[in-house]
Structures are given as structure tokens and as C-alpha cells.
């Protein structure tokens, strides 16, 4: 069976589809071939896997082959059983017949002969050629097909289908595909069973002497390949895994190996996917095999190629001392390249699922990376190490890769002196390319140990007879049946390790090789090892080496970019950029370096970024990319300080400053978030009131190595409670010099809207360049002075309170002051947790009010207890002029500046004012229904106040304060009695209207015409108990004796007095803290001080005739006993009675008509009837009449009822009953039962 190995491998390279045999009985294939092949490949086929479970195959490739084809006729029976996977999976018999006799005598016997083999899956396709218009031919074709179905189909399986050439049926192709799939499925199940049985038999014999791995391999590989053809990849992979395990067990079996191999010409080229390179008949010999040849040829042909390369490389390492120089590295390179070429040619994008596709590209990238690493090692061995970029990725790959371990290091050929000189010249001329900015770095190693020491040590170990290292510690190395590699002669004398130089010991030991000689020796040895012409060409010169290195790097990067491991691709882009940078292709280099820097910066790999970023900056500077170069310099400054020297960081800063002050073509904003950070100062946040400016203190941290000048600086504040509102910027008014480390600056803060504010973005200008920073300072240890909090969300730095009252202005007293007298009006100035330092109060007196500007204003601390003084009869003395603690102020242009000592305390400002009233007070009759007292509005005066305060008088508080002024007394009169002699006793009632003690020293009454004083006639009261003290809000009475006098003649009426005037001379004793008080003292220039001591009050009194002699009486009649209720009509009645007959001189024709009017409160009552009208009343004494009005109560409670008035009759002629206003009770409306449900 082993003799079929070459044929098996050739079949695998050319066979990749299912074969379907076509038995063309009636020469129909040329006619139907096109239609059949258009159905390929089959879509959505269901096949059974090894466990007989259906598996969906999206595409199943197949091929129709005639049974007369040589590919099916030239096979031996043993080939058919061994390579059963390439045999037809179904046989399609094409027939046609137009006559029943022909079918019965000719076609049917032939078909019986064709389908008599039960091992084949078959079905018959009957092709009808009958024209559509020929009914007889069509009917005959149907009869023949029906007979065909009866003879060859059964109930269990339908084996016939009909194709009409002239009238094709669309269902035919679906029926055809269904029958083909059924045949393929049955054939596949049968063949799987066959292979499993054969493999089971061989597995049972594995530990017997007759065991042959080649036979087992062919059967197992055939089964796996059959699964692969059917696109059952999971089953195929499972078979390959089992085959690999069996291979490893067989390799480790003692006695099954003749030798390892790998020392023949061409063994350095991995025969993966290329088995025809060596004669396969030489592999199987005496029931044993070579591990190197068999493993490298067969096992990883399709699956697990990368993992096999890794595992087989380890096997090569174990036998490295027996193999040619660098055999392991060369074999890995050729294996990777072969695997890459094979997979790339067979795979197309979009064939697999996205996850599978990404994994494919990842493995492809790994293969490229492995090949690249081994290729760099070979280049380093032949002297190209100075041209390999000493990057972190190359250093990590090569410094952990051990040196080759040959039995002896290659010796220098005798005729290589010119090559050695060339290598030495190259070494001497090689100098590391200086880095930009003068950066000095120790080169990263590209070797695990010094090559010079390693090479000479291996040469010396052989010369010294170190045989254990020769065989690399393998205990069974001497047991191998094959011959060892030829070795140089070894002197039996051991080398003394204490000799200072090789010349101190005896023997044939060569001198130590120089580095150039090691390079030349390795190059000659590799020339003997490498048989691949293309690989050697890539190592023949530094240009070819760099080109191959670039191709491998690009291949790895491109595949990584399309896989999961995109970061690996970006890292390798940096290696590609290094090559472009070296060859001055700065455009491509800069683009790739930017990708690498973005990755390193995003991952926080600052050490790696420090290696690449200077190269990017150099490319940008050469390209005159000022914006990019500036950004790179800033990023270099932003890296950790320990990565660069101070002078290097100063060079970065100098470049930034130079560009900032130069004329840039396209200036761009610069982000210096990593260099300039900021935060608020420690401690409580700044709190301001709405509308207040302030000064904001901010801490800036500068990471620049030297001082740097900021021409301008602004900082935005972001409101935390209103995200829709944009940030507000505050700006510095002068240039700022930032020193390295911590800097504290102050910025003027304009008024802000209410809310909490956090620091937003720091912007400014360095030279002509604008910069921005949005990073907050990170502090050091919490116990250090440099500690600054770094919080997210950030701590508010400013809080502007919501609009509130910052100050309150109110009247010091609420009680009335004296009208027409100078009074102190107190204004309480109360700061509400806000300083009033420098506040200015504007005062504007309203109408009827005058400021006494000749007097000083007074201000004092507000004492709450001063308003609780009750003993007004003994008021405090010396309230004015200013007492202790009272300061005098002067009014200037209607405003007063408040002293600073009042900024945080409540104070009282006393303003001298005079309320002016031109008219005299009017007295009223006692007991009237509506007393005609002076209206409160008449005594009300207003003061408009405006207070400007705050740091820059930005706060304004305006308020209008109402001050009540009144007369000291309210006067009412009544005739107390009428004597027999006609004398009238007039009682004058004085009601105090101020919160002060009044002392009446004198009073007299100037009577109007028609009245005269009885007695002395001097107008003084009949009872003189002066001085008369009237306490606050109390009453006092004065009695005058008068009588009726003759009225003057009409021609003298113009000069007569129409009203009586009451004159009162009094003094007042009160406190300005409580209300009315002694008028503001005036400086008198004359000898008369009476004006300052006594005050005079005058009031008009109207005396009407007749006195105590009414002619009409109006009485309110009683209400119904049921009472009043809201919503119910009620009749209000009044009785009008004439008490005496009218005098003849006033009689007229209309005296019996009396005008009446009903007065109501419309909120309480509604009238249903005439509100105003005339009624007839006889002029005779005792005549009476009733007036009725229908009313409707609107509200419940005690309310005043409607009142009846007689507009044309003086009140002196009317007697009312009841005499004054009274109340009536109105009940609420009854409960409604409209929505009540009866029980």
C-alpha cells in the first residue's frame, strides 16, 4: 500500500470535487450537458457527517463525467478501494425511446444490465424528444415513461425522472437535484463505513510487529480528504487531529526510526504542499521512516500548518547539532513561505464567516511574523545587524531567540580574505544615525548574547573536547544507526581554563575569530545550507535583504490589520516606517509613525512612544509640517520626565517657542492638556451673590522645563445645573509667566448667573499660537503642599447664589407722624448676610413730602429694644441733637453715602421730613353712620429709596416706603343738651391719632354765622381744665356753651364765615422710635420761642340748624321670624314718618314727594326692585308711609343690611332708628337633596 503514496499525493493536489458518472445510453449528453452543468455547484446540500447527523453545505462542487471517460476507465481495483473518495458518488443514466416495442426488446434489457451493480447509486433520466404539436408522439412518450417507472421505480425509492426537451418543466431540475443529493448521501455513508472498518482493523494492530504507519496514514488521510471534498470540514479536522496524535505516538516509539534525516541536499526547503520534491518511494523502508522527511512532507498539508511548524521547529532544535548550519531557521522560513503561498492561493475573501476570516488572517500574520524573525536572525549572522532597526519589537523578538547551536561554529574559508576586509570596512564605517533633538539612547540589543563570544566559545568547546555540548546533552545520540556529521579533529589534551590567551596551551587550536570573520564564515556556511535560490538572493546584498525584510513586515502588518490583532499590525507599521525613514521616504514614514504613536499614546505605553515620537517629529520637520511638528514637540514634553534628559526637554520647549513666535502659514490650536493643568485652590469654594463680580484664584501646573510666557490666558466656567447654557470665559488682563511646577494666578470674574460652576477649558496664546488645555491638575501626596485634588466629577470652584434679598429697607415705625410738622422718618437698613461697604442711598420724597435739607441726617445702630418703650409720658431726653452712638450725615445731590461701620450691622437712618397739607382738618358729628374722618390715603406719603451697593455698586435695591402722617386729633361734635333758655351745650370730642402724649394748654372756638358764644363770648370752653393731658389713642372732651343767633342779611353773606373753626394749642411728648414726636428743632433767630414750644391745631366744624329738631323719622322694621338665608328673597321695610309740619315759608306744591335711595353692598346683597324713587308723604304732622324693597342675600354671616337714605333732606332733619349701623345674620343655603338616594 505504501507504493501508492506518490499517487495519493498527486491526487490530493488535483482533486477537490465530487464526481458524478453519466451513462449516456441514447447519446443524449451533448444535448443536455449545458443544462446539467448550469446547476453546479449544488446550493444548500444536506449531507450526513461521521455520526450520521445532517449537515448543511452551502456549496458542494461536483463534476459530471461520462462513464466512457479515461479518468474512470483506467483504474485498478486496488486503487478504487484505496482511493474510493475519487470514485463516482452517483450514476445518471440518460435514455430516450419513442416506441414500446423498442423499450421492451432493446432498452429494458440494457438498463437491467447497467443497474445490476447494487454498490452503485443510480437513477434514470428519460429525455422526451416529442414535439409539442405532435399529440401522438407526446402520448407515446408518456406511455414509455410510465412503463419505465413501473419497471425501475419502487414504493421505497423513486429512481426515474423525465426531461422534456421541447417543453421543459421547472420542477424537473429540483427533482434532479434531489435525486443526486440522495445518491451522494447514500454513497458517502457507505464509504465512511468502509473506511472506518479498515481503520479499526489497522488500529487494533498498532502495537503488533506487522504494524505499518504508511498504510494507516493513507486510509486515515483518505477518509479526512473525503470529508474535505464534501465540505464537512469539522469531520475532516477531527480526522487530521487523530492522525497527528497517532503520528506523535509512532515517532516516540523506540526502534521505529532509522535516522532523523535533514542532511541531504534540498532538505532545507520545507516540502509542505510540495511532496514531489523528493522520491517518496525512499521514505518507506523496512517498516520504519525518517521523522524529518515523513513529518515535513505529509502531516501538515492542509490543516494546522502553523502549529506544526512550531512543533517541528522544536524537533529540529533537538537535532540541531547534527544538521547543517542554521538548518532550523532556513527550514522555518521556507515552510512559512510555502504555507503562506498555498493558503493565499486557495482562500478568497468572503468565503468564510467574519469570525473565521479574522482568525485566518491572524494565523497568517503569525506565520509572517515568525518568518520575519528567522529572516532577521540570518541577516544578523551575515553582518546586516547594523541595518536592522533596533526597535523594541525587533529587540524583543531577537534578544529572546537563541543563537544557532551547531556542533562547531563554521570556520573561515582560506580564500575569503577579501570578503573579511570588506566586512571590516563595513563595520568601521557603520555608525548609528543620530536622533533628532540630540537624543542619546543606549541601543537596544538584537542578540541574546554577544555573537563574538558565542561563536568563539563554540569553536573553543570543540577544540577542548567538550563532547557533551557537541551532542547537546542527548543521552542516546551515540545510539543512532546513521553516521554523524563529519567533525574536525580534537586534541586529547584538555584546555586549561586559566590561560590568559589561546596561545598559552598546546595543540592545534585556532586563534579566536574576529567579528568580520564570523560574518564571512556564517555567510559561506549558509550558502551551503540554503538551496532555495530566491531565499539566497534575498540575503546576497543589503538592498535585497531590506526589500525582503520590508515585504515580510508588510505581509504581517496587512494580515494583522484584517484580523483580531490590529495592534500587532500597527506595531509592525512602525518597523515599515523605520525603513522608509532610513531611505528618506518621509511622507510614507510620517503616515505610519502617526498610526504607531496613536496606538502607543492610547494604550499609555510611554516608553515605546518615546522611541518612535522623535522619528515622527523629524519627518514632520523635514516635510515642513509645522502643525504636526509642533504637536509632536508638545507630546514629547508631555511624556514622563524620566524618559528624557533635561537638556533634551529644553530642546523640545525651544522648538515650541520658536514655532509659536514664527509666522506659521496655517496656525492651528495647540492642545497642551498634558503640559498645563489647572484646578481650583484648596479650601472652600468662592461664593458670590447674583450679579456680584469677584476675583477667582486658580492653580496652574506647568510641565515645561523652563519658564514660559503666556501672552493671554482665559478660563471657561461651566454651569453644572444648566447644560444647555454655553461655557463663559474669564480672561487675564496681562501676560503671565509660568514657572515649572505650581503657579497661582488670579483672574477677574465678571458677574455670573446663579448656579455652581466648574472649571472648563483653559485657553491662551503663546506668541502667535493659540493653545488649549482641558485637564485638571493631579496632585502629589495628600500631606504635601503640592496636593491638588483630581476628582470626577470635578469639584465646583464657584457658587453663585440664586437671586435673593441682599438688603432690606423698611420704615422704622408704622404709626402715624404729625402732619405739617418736621418729623424724623426712620429707615431701617438691614444687610442680609452681605456687606454694604461703600453703599450709597438715593432719597426721593414723593408728592406732599419735603426733605428738611437744612438739617443733618442721623444714623445709628438699630436697637430692637427701643421700640418696646411704653412710658411715653416720660420720654428720653436729648434724642436730638445726636446722642451717643448717633452720627450725622449730609445729603448731597439727593444721596447719602453710608458709613463703613454700618456695612454688616442693622442701622437706622433718620431723615428730617415734613408732610405738607393745605386744608384744615374737618370735624364730624358724633354718632354718624359713616364718620367723615380724614381718609388714610390723604395722610399717606411715599419715599422712593434706591440703594447702590456691592464691590462696584453693581447691586441695586429699590423700594418705595409709605409713611403715614396725620393730625394729632380727630374732632367730633354733638349737642349735649338744650337748656330752657335756649342755650346749647356743644360737646367737642378730641380723639388722639398719634402714639404720643399730647398736652392741651389752650383751646377756643371761632363760631360760624348763626351761632354765638354764651357767657364771656371769648370763645373759650365753659370748663377750662388746662393743661389737659391726652394719652395715646384716648379721647378727651371740651364743652362749649353757645346759642342760636340771628342770621346776617343776604347782602353781607359774602363776608361771613360759613364754618366754625376749633383752635387748640398743645405740646407733644413722644419718641421717634415709636411714632409722632416733638418736631425737629429749628435754630431760632428771634426772641419769640413760643413757636418752638407750642404747636397749634385747627379743625373745621360745621354746625347745622335746626339743632335737636328733626322733621322726619326713618325706622327699620323688624325682619321675618324665619330669618334670612342665602338665596331666598326677603322683603326689607322702612317706615318714614313726618314729625312736624313744615313751615309755610318752605312749603311748595311738591312737598308731598320724598326722594328715597337704598344703599347696599353689591357683594352681599342683590335688589329686585327700584333702588331709587319718589314716594308721596303728606305735609301734615304724623303722616307716615312704608317703603318696601325685595332683596336677595348673597353671602352667609353677619352683614350690614341695606340702608334707606333721603338724598334731598339734610341729615339734621332726619332721625334714624336705629341711630347707627347694625348687623343682621344671614344663614347659609339649605342642603340640596337633588342627588340623594332614598333609603
UniProtKB/TrEMBL annotation:
Every TRAPPC10/Trs130 N-terminal domain range: 18-294
PANTHER family for this protein: EPILEPSY HOLOPROSENCEPHALY CANDIDATE 1/TMEM1, TRAFFICKING PROTEIN PARTICLE COMPLEX SUBUNIT 10
Keyword annotations of the record: Golgi apparatus, Transport
Primary localization class, coarse: Golgi
Entry keyword Transport: yes
Region (Disordered) location: 464-488
Protein name: Trafficking protein particle complex II-specific subunit 130 homolog
Annotated compartments: Golgi apparatus
A Pfam family: TRAPPC10_1st
Species classification: Eukaryota, Viridiplantae, Streptophyta, Embryophyta, Tracheophyta
Location of the TRAPPC10/Trs130 C-terminal domain: 1123-1204
Cytoplasm as UniProt keyword: no
InterPro entries: TRAPPC10/Trs130, TRAPPC10/Trs130_C, TRAPPC10/Trs130_N
